[in-house]
């Protein structure tokens, strides 16, 4: 694995699910790297693990919506206070430039059950100018902004881009047949039934991802610019491998 990452940057971008994937990946390689040959730097938004002998980094960048929002740094726990700037990823994307493998995700933070406070233009123009939109509408706008960035800035001969689709909720153990369970406590195995459809999933949101990805792929190309990954559905969305 480390040989394949030699002289490369791998970055996970998204929410706490992606942070978990980053932590798991770091755990997988950490034990085989001698002390003094590795380093880790944790930041509020950007964290970096470096394998020095391989000149490789495994990174995580916090951007729960991918697009900019007023809850990126100072977390607003009340969804009613969150405002999403659906027409810009610039503040985040400057960290993505030059990365060899980008793995994105965004879903669970959109699923508050409320309409989304959606803003165009600068926060400096006043947050009162936002508009309340249905979640799937603002999700479409946000993903299109992200997709446009990928289309305009990613060189497919140098960078591979992945998008991790919906991860399962871990709040209802009855979803995987454990009627007496407590969320995902003590769960250690994935759900192997690929037709399983868990609570908290939204087919409309799934179709948004499919439609946006399809437009990235349209046109004559001799490469796979975009790869959509739907992995085995873990019983816990924050499952880490150690």
Give structural notes:
This protein has helices at 16-30, 90-93, 135-153, 203-217, and strands at 9-14, 38-41, 46-51, 56-62, 68-69, 83-85, 101-104, 116-119, 131-133, 160-164, 226-229. It has 242 residues and is of the alpha/beta class. Strands 2-3-4-1-7-10-11 form a 7-stranded mixed β-sheet, sandwiched between helices. Helix 3 (135-153) runs parallel beside helix 4 (203-217). The longest helix is centred in the middle third of the chain and has 19 residues, at 135-153.
List keywords for this structure.
single chain, 242 residues, 4-stranded mixed β-sheet, 4 helices, globular
Compact summary:
This protein is α/β, with parallel strands linked by helices and about 240 residues long. The protein has helices at about 15-30, 90-95, 135-155, 205-215; strands spanning about 10-15, 40, 45-50, 55-60, 70, 85, 100-105, 115-120, 130-135, 160-165, 225-230. The chain is about 20% helix and about 20% strand.
Total strand count, please? 11
Question: How many helical elements?
Answer: 4
Radius of gyration: 19 Å
Question: Which strand order spans the largest sheet, edge to edge or round the barrel?
Answer: 2-3-4-1-7-10-11
Main sheet overview? 7 strands, mixed
- Structural category: alpha/beta
**Average residue pLDDT:** 84
Q: How far apart are the first and last residues' alpha carbons, in Å?
A: 16 Å
Give the strand content: 15-25%
Determine the fraction of residues in helical runs and give it as a percent range: 10-25%
> What is the 3D shape?
globular
Q: Write the H/E string, N to C.
A: EHEEEEEHEEEHEHE
Which blocks of ≥5 consecutive residues have pLDDT under 50? 219-236
């Amino acid at each position: 694995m480390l040989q394949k990452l030699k002289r490369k940057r791998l970055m996970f971008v998204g929410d706490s699910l992606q942070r978990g994937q980053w932590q798991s990946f770091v755990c997988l390689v950490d034990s085989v790297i001698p002390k003094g040959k590795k380093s880790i730097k944790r930041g509020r938004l950007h964290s970096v693990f470096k394998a020095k002998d391989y000149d490789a980094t495994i990174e995580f960048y916090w951007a729960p919506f991918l697009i900019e929002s007023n809850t990126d740094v100072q977390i607003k726990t009340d969804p009613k206070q969150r405002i999403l700037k659906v027409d810009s990823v610039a503040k985040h994307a400057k960290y993505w430039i030059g990365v060899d493998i980008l793995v994105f995700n965004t879903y669970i933070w959109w699923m508050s059950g409320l309409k989304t406070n959606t803003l165009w233009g600068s926060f400096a123009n006043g947050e009162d100018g936002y508009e309340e939109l249905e979640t799937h509408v603002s999700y479409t706008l946000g993903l299109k902004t992200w997709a446009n960035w990928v289309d305009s800035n990613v060189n497919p001969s140098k960078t591979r881009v992945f998008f991790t689709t919906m991860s399962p909720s871990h709040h209802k153990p009855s979803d995987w047949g454990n009627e007496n369970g407590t969320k995902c406590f003590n769960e250690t195995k994935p759900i192997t039934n690929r037709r399983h459809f868990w609570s908290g999933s939204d087919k409309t949101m799934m179709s948004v991802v499919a439609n946006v990805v399809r437009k990235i792929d349209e046109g004559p190309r001799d490469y796979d610019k975009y790869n959509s990954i739907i992995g085995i559905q873990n019983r816990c969305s924050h499952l880490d491998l150690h």
